[in-house]
Amino acid sequence: MNPMSHAKTILSPKSYLAAFVFIVLMVAAAYGLNDREIILPEMAAMAVGLWVYRDKQWLNQPDKIFILPSLTAVIGFCINLMPISYLFKLVLVLCAMLLVMRMFNYILPPALATGFLPIVTQAYEISFLISIFATSFILMLGVVLFKLNQGVERKGNFDRRKIGVYASITLIGFALAAIFKIEAMALIPPITVVVYESLNMMMYSLKMCLKQVAMLTLSISMAVLM
């Protein structure tokens, strides 16, 4: 992800420690309960984006830190239970999420991923939703209690033009996956967030593109090797 797009960089050791402890506890809970659906990559990314880098675009409406990921996760979870094709599920989730965000006049990029996540990971256990609710609430609580949004103007950020471009890119990805019969590659949750975040950047250079490719490739390579 790219939480640096509108961020005031505050690389406090305490912030790093808080995010690290949050992620470790999430993994420990998954291990202790023997439930892989409790491990939520997007919540780990949100912990870093909210608590460490403090992205203004993610902080300007703290209540949405809990509300939007929870709503999109419920949407994705329910659609995943439908007896329809994988790609059709993704299309339905995309449309439903954008409709909900239009109603709130607010986009929280990680919430796009939490909507797709239950379909991509084939999550059928209610523990998935419980973990989304719990972790997003903790993240919101951290922002409110420590006033991480202090001085950040509360405003909507739903940009129809950017959303139109994002939806078009995503749907083209679905179409290409169907044409080449690689449905499993139709959508990768972290990548879909990077796409939206990139559209929000005031300037998007080749250097930034290469950095994103390098970081994403490095992180997935480490995961595969481990």
Automatic annotation (TrEMBL):
Q: What domain of life does the native source organism fall in?
A: Bacteria
Q: List each coiled-coil range.
A: none
Q: Sorted alphabetically, which InterPro entries does this protein's record hold?
A: TM_HPP (IPR058581)
Q: Where is the HPP transmembrane region domain?
A: 15-146
Which residue spans traverse the membrane? 15-33, 38-53, 65-83, 90-108, 128-148, 163-182, 202-225
Alphabetized Pfam families for the sequence: TM_HPP
Leader sequence segment: none
Keyword Nucleotidyltransferase annotated: no
User: Has UniProt tagged this entry with the keyword Transmembrane?
Assistant: yes
What keywords is this UniProt entry annotated with?
Answer: Membrane, Transmembrane, Transmembrane helix
Question: What is this protein's record name?
Answer: HPP transmembrane region domain-containing protein
Q: What is the lineage of its organism?
A: Bacteria, Pseudomonadati, Pseudomonadota, Gammaproteobacteria, Moraxellales
